[in-house]
Amino acid sequence: MNKALLVRLAPVIFLLLWSAGFTVAKIGIHDADPITLLSLRYFCVVVLLLPFVVYVKPKIPATRSEWGHLMVVGFLIQVVYFGTAWVAFSLGGSAGSVALITSLQPILVALVIPKLSNETVSKTKWIGLFLGLLGAALVIFGNSGVQAMSLQVLLFSIAALLSISMATVWEKRYGISHHPLTSNSVQYTVGFLCTLPLAWYFEPMNINVTAPFILALTYLVVCNSILAISLLLMMIRNGEATRVSALFFLVPPVSAVIAWQVLGEKMTLLAWLGMALAATGVWMVTRQKS
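RE: above sequence
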């Protein structure tokens, strides 16, 4: 697959892999403490990548600055974003509630990115951003409603929102294109080294090894950790951060469709309307000018 075709297909592949990850994470957290599961996930990724790194010998960052930027993005996504979102789930937060809060990410990115780069956000894109947010909210309300959440769940969800927004802006502002093996190895090593002591200190580190847990861990390692994150970073470097962030509006609708197909969860008329509205908003943001 050539690079041009991969860039075209990347949004669809990323959206499917990322959206399914919410359901898979909930399955995994049922059998393990959240930060413990994250630490195990990152350890497995590093072990899996190590033979490829030794064989391929990809180019490593040339300066301390390049090392630092890779580590910052890895910390924001792997430790703060996933850590706070998964803890919010474990504290009783519904996937809909957390998804609705993190769906604000494209709005935050659109507010910040013009101040840090030459990228501008047109009126049409702003309309698309708000349509995407409204559509994502309709999907969540239509399917299950946004449950009342505790202050802890709210704070962890907001932390997840801020961290993924900061990571997107940081990658767009300072990110340098590295070999996927290099960027993934650095960032998941950072994730493992940070989450392991957190799990040891704050959790009993319980793991119940079941068939669903093994399948969930395999998906989280291969599909979410390696494929989805690599596609996300590639899209940010090859396109506008606002356009890439707008894809997150489609995560709640696509997650709802996956749950409908896999788990038999009902899709209401309001949810279908919301999905269409979110798709329209994302199209307005991501369409290329002729």
